[in-house]
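Running low. Any example?
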Amino acid sequence: MKDEELGQALGTALAAPEVTAAPDAGARLRARARRARTERLAAGGAVVVVLALLVAVGVVRGVGGGARSTPVASPPAGLSRLTTPLTVALAQVTPEHDGAGCGTGSGLRCVPPAAALTVDEVVGLSTSELPESGAFVQVALTATDAGTLAMMEGASLTAGVGTASYPADLPGGDVLRIRVPTPRMGQELVDELGPVRLGPPRTGPGRLGRPLQIWTVRKSDRSPCAVSPARAGVLVVNRGSECLVLTGPELTIDSADLELVPPQDIGPQRLVSVGLTGPVSDQFTRYTARHVGDRAAFVAGGHLLSSPPVLQGPISGSFEIQAPDRAGAEALVTRLRP
């Protein structure tokens, strides 16, 4: 075969086949395009939904937004007890020129900060991440603790947990705000506090898991109390606007009949009735007879349970302890009978 014939044969064999459009080809192309647009819109919608959810839970931070609050231990009702108590104190140290020296060569004497309160019951805890840096741990205080710290609003405070100390303040109401360097440290602080939700109170007669002690108020000064060395038989506590110095215990009650007194015309306050029998009942009667006109303090585990009342006369059989509200009354019973 000649070269020219061979070239023609190869051209015919390698030529592209003739393409004939199917009758529904256009419709199928348009349907494919619609499906592609739908898939793109669906994917975009899913991204929008995911972003919205992330913003809602605080994972994505909006530009110029404020602090985000993430609840970490906030019971819907009632109280939680802290496994590790939180100590609140005035932060400022007052230097006084007396030549004794606050530090080497300083020529100052440092007056120690005043102790304010030990918190071991809270209404709730939450962390709030700050938009610039750091975070807050916010402590929702009980009515009693909030009343004790109210007079310190605006003061520089420190919050101590174990051996660590953090700057704190009272932004108002019943909240104590603790500043920590990072959100992770805020969560670690909450974990160290270890809030445990209080169960239902176990009323009725029986032994007390934590004995109830009777102390006598020997002195009352303006709050807050100054830091002083611990002494056996002496308990110094803040209560409201008072710094109370207690001596005792004068009497220890290991068993009692505990009851929540039904609400009366005393506002939100509630009473816990403590019924006594046997020798301890006679001992309590003799104590109240000796201390008419004194203030008797009810203490459990080193914690003052209520504002000490003035003894008006001998008491026999039973007595009542006042709580700020129903939750406080239930917590008081739970403290005596964990």
